[in-house]
Write the structure tokens for this entry.
Amino acid sequence: MSIVKELSCSYCGAPISFEPGEIIATCKYCGYTVVIETGKAFTFEHSMLLNKYNLEQIEEPVKGWMSSGFLKPADLAKKSKITEKALMYLPFWIISVEAESTYKGIFERVSPPLVKEGEIAKKYDWLVLARKATKFPTREYDVPLEGKVPYDFRKIEGFAKVLNSEIDRDEAVEIAKQQIVEHHHFLAQQDVDKIIEMKNEIKIGQTVYLHAPIWFIKYEYKGEIYNLWLDGTTGTIIKGDIPTAKFRIF
Ligand SMILES: [Zn+2]
């Protein structure tokens, strides 16, 4: 069991509770965001995305997803039951990045093999989940950034949970850099078979701390429980577990 600690909000005086490992906490009564270790105000931009669904409405995109797509059992929407619906505001760091990679490699699909050079230059708003053990398919989440507004605690539904950050800005930047290098490595491998040399130049721009509304849904189908993640801003399914068809062999 985790021990919950408390500090008092220096803006409204209310207690702000946090758990071990959390680094940045937000007061649920006034929205004040504090760096736990120093007790000082958080200085980066703190934004949020708005949730557009209530507990009843969220069933509609879930049912829609269940009844479409040929990979799913035909009776999925009819036979499944939603057993859990939870709205969570997950913390993310969004790091604006200009990344340039140059590489040299061997193209082996011709004879004799060729030495080839290439360049990858891209701009990203790279998303880093600010939680360490929370299960969430970050790479599959196409964050609808155009809808971001300054964080406003009054927009948080009473039944929703807001998670604090366990990762500070510098750590998030390091994670982003590492993931971008891996991603460019992957892209270069589409062009050459063996990479001999690769240089990466990563320029970090603005960083934003963002709370995004994510619905966690659990549903039951033929005695098994499956998970679903939905974007509360758009109703899009981020990822859903699909029951695999079981064939009975006689
Ligand atoms: Zn407060």
